[in-house]
Amino acid sequence: MKVATWNVNGIRARASQIQEWLDRERPDVVCLQELKAEASQIPEQCKSADYHAYWHCLKAYSGVSLMLRKELFGAEPVYTHPAFDYESRIVQVERDDLVLASVYVPNGGKDYPAKLNFLTLMIDWVRRLHAEGRSLVLCGDINIARTELDVHPRERKPNVVGQRPEERALFQTLLDAGLTDVGRKLDPDNDGLFTWWAPWRNMRQRNIGWRLDYVLASQRIAEAAAGCVVQSDVGTSDHAPVVMTTS
Q: Residue 189 sits in a domain of what CATH number?
């Protein structure tokens, strides 16, 4: 299975890039974030006939999508949203005992308590799924650089949102609820593994960035992961796609 996640930072601005990427990569599961469009504004070229798709939208802000390859998932799946969803930030689908979800955690810059509350409720949801014997693949923009290794030294700033101790503690609690950070598991010592770069001063070209986008998976799926790569050369969003493959 190939699972991909990408914060596109405006699907209308990136429509042709998304189409080309989908045609080339052909992921089985596609999680997109920050659509910044109403459902009626989703470009037709992003609506591939090969995929079931759900567009969870909010005008000019936020928004997530979850696309599933038809040849793998068959009949139209039932898409739902956990109770803690707000501002069109998470969509999920169930297939037998597997749950797949695309998430866009609040940045926290304007409403930091809302970010912490979202994370806390998401942790409870993960615990509940695992208590029910389900496996989970949770993909998206978590908006936290998990450790100091996940921020370029020039970008490390004490107490800046996205690097605060309480955010990182919640991220660790999320992992302790039964999830594995697949990218870091497969590349534990890479100090240049970033997924987001500020859109100025050639930060992306110089790889001065943060790692904010993740594929998080339950143990049995994480153990089957053969690769989890950041496609830093793809697209003009300030985020890069992350693609996990399993054996």
A: 3.60.10.10
